[in-house]
Design goal:
Blueprint lengths: L1 H20 L2 E14 L2 E8 L5 E6 L2 H8 L8 E7 L5 E6 L4
Antiparallel strand pairs: 1-2, 1-4, 2-3, 4-5
């Protein structure tokens, strides 16, 4: 009985935890525009696979510093992880090699 109960609880936790991780999206895209208004920054990227334009918000300090120091510019190709629901960037890496 205890094994059955623990199995049911494990399955239920797994079912409810899966949508939480599904919200993170990955893409490789080219920056077409960067718009900074006060402390908020929006980047418009063109997805490599679908050629769709996606507007993402930048909130973390590391990415903001990259934009201010012009390490990330319009025309750069980036690997990005972002939250699919709120469109907030989590990580940014340049896809070009050395």
């Amino acid at each position: 009985m205890k094994r059955l109960f623990s199995l049911v609880v494990t399955v239920m936790v797994t079912m409810f935890a899966t949508p939480v991780f599904a919200a993170e999206m990955k893409m490789i895209g080219t920056i077409t525009a960067i718009k900074t208004v006060g402390t908020a920054t929006e980047m418009t990227l063109k997805d490599r696979k679908t050629d769709a334009l996606i507007v993402l918000q930048v909130r973390d300090n590391a990415t903001m510093e990259k934009i201010k120091d012009r390490k990330v510019r319009v025309g750069d190709e980036l690997r990005i992880r972002y939250d699919g629901d709120s469109k907030v960037i989590k990580t940014v890496q340049k896809s070009a090699g050395c």
